[in-house]
Design a protein that fits this description.
The protein is mostly beta strands. Helix content is 3%, strand content 42%. It has a two-stranded parallel sheet with strand order 1-4. A two-stranded parallel sheet has the order 2-5. The protein is elongated, with a radius of gyration of 24 Å.
Length: 154
Amino acid sequence: MNAFGAPIRTADIGSIRVIDAALSSVIQIGDVASEYLTSNALAVQREADHNAADEPYFESYPIFARPLPTLYPGYGDGVIVERNNMAPTIEVGCVRVIAISTSSVLQAGNTGNAVAESRIKHIRQFWQSPYQPDGSRTDVTPLDPPDRSASNAE
């Protein structure tokens, strides 16, 4: 038995190909007692030069200080998990992954306890709002794709 009471099993992997693993992501082959993955990010898009504008700080946004939500009381009570592993080996052929990111796990094996948390605050800063009071959009920002409807109509 391993640290969390599950039988020890060997992971037999034919091949794994991961193109990109980033931002608190894990590639785990085999068992792990616990995993805690966390990622905090500020995604800032602005018209002003980044050197000319004030820099944002995590402390300025309450989303990064809020406690993790918990499952409601009684969730999972009475759930019984039974395992019948017919083979002592976890056999995996070929795994191909384009990308894993932002507090995620690619694992072949057992996990006792896993917590993954990702908090991202998106900030858009424009000199002038791209929206009019009636909700319509203007083209004050160069981020909009060009209008191709005129060329498609011909």
